[in-house]
Design goal:
This protein is mainly alpha-helical. The protein is about 75% helix and about 0% strand. Helix 3 packs antiparallel against helix 6, helix 6 packs antiparallel against helix 7 and helix 6 packs across helix 8. It starts with a helix and ends in a 10-residue tail after the last helix.
Length: about 375
């Protein structure tokens, strides 16, 4: 496999990991009856995979990253963005009862659009706060691909929500959850540009990943512990009717697996953008086009309410918008990659024109 194309493999793997994250954390929190316990399990998995493992690799290989304030700042901010985005999803869906009919489609439609805007107009190589017009023009199909990827992601999740609600629109009285939905989309939209620049500055994917893990440890381990301590000091309330019985082993397992998939996806993003030089403007749209499609497929064929390993055909026919969304997301992701190829071909043609070959025997 040509090195310039290896990054696509890690992009696909990141899309797969982040696609299964939501079903795992949803059912993990359902069995644990507490979103903060589920979030704590996510943080514990990140601590293991994104703190202890990078430290072990760096020590075993005797690697000495080029630690510097800029690289540490960018990579840590990427971890903060990822963790804050995950926490905002918890607040939007659990604390403020935002219906899935509105929450997930907006997040996955916002993220690739924000990533593209940030990647085009933010120029960290010239200074951490340098904002300006794009330095190099990109093919128009990139913009169309981003719109289609976001629209497809939204339609896939919207169709899933329609199927779950049997076509009924949720009755919403408190729209506070919208704030956290927008924050989650913003946080996950800036993640890839931040982590790409962090790895570039540190010149080490493992050092960059370690900074991400440190940020997750603070936000997804220490913060949930504080919240759980605070909740233990408050009066207890009976569980709502219809809730499944507590299942700590299954809940902890699923929530921890969610954290593991999230951490592996984050590492794949680092490998795609730093190790194999995948352009950050193309990486995120493809990931965010894949993730909701995979999320929906897993949700349709995995039936954890029957058993943790219960797989089978969908119990109900999905809404037709699901198939429209899958096609739109796939076409959008394809157009993003097609735009990359066209842009590279255009630059190569300009380079050949600017540096013509002088025939032998002719002197300028």
């Amino acid at each position: 496999m040509h090195k310039s194309r290896v990054w696509m493999f890690f992009v696909a793997l990141a899309g797969l990991c982040w696609g299964v994250y939501v079903p795992l954390i949803t059912w993990g929190g359902r069995d644990l009856h507490n979103p903060f316990v589920a979030f704590l399990c996510v943080g514990a998995a990140y601590f293991l995979l994104a703190v202890l493992v990078p430290i072990g690799v760096l020590r075993a290989r005797n690697l000495r990253p080029g630690w510097n304030s800029r690289g540490v700042t960018f990579a840590t901010l990427a971890g903060v963005a990822g963790a804050v985005g995950a926490l905002c999803v918890v607040f939007a869906t659990v604390v403020f009862h935002g219906p899935a009919l509105y929450v997930a489609p907006v997040i996955f439609a916002l993220a690739p659009v924000i990533n593209t805007i940030v990647s085009l107009f933010w120029h960290p190589d010239e200074g951490p706060l340098t904002i300006g017009l794009p330095r190099e023009p990109v093919h128009w199909s990139l913009y169309l691909g981003v719109i289609l990827a976001g629209l497809g992601a939204g339609l896939v999740l919207y169709a899933q929500a329609l199927s779950e609600s049997h076509g009924k629109v949720a009755d919403v009285h408190d729209y506070t959850f919208v704030i956290f939905v927008l924050l989650a989309g913003l946080a996950w939209g800036v993640y890839v540009p931040l982590i790409a620049q962090g790895g570039k500055e540190l010149k080490s994917s493992y050092a960059s990943f370690l900074c991400v893990g440190a940020a997750y440890f603070v936000i997804a381990v220490l913060l949930p512990l504080v919240m759980l301590w605070y909740m233990s000091t408050q009066p207890t309330h009976p569980a709502p009717p219809g809730m499944p019985p507590l299942d700590y082993p299954t809940g902890i397992t699923l929530a921890t697996l969610a954290g593991a998939t999230g951490a592996i996806g984050a590492l794949c993003v680092i490998f795609a953008t730093f190790e194999f030089k995948g352009p950050r403007i193309y990486v995120a749209p493809v990931i965010f086009a894949m993730a909701p499609v995979i999320n929906t497929i897993v949700s349709l064929f995995w039936h954890p309410n029957v058993g943790p390993f219960a797989f089978g055909l969908p119990t109900e026919e999905p809404h037709w918008l699901l198939y429209v969304g899958i096609v739109a997301a796939g076409v959008g992701a394809g157009m993003v990659l097609f735009a990359k190829e066209l842009t590279e071909a255009k630059h190569a043609a300009h380079a050949r024109t600017a540096s013509p070959v002088v025939p032998q025997g002719i002197r300028p």
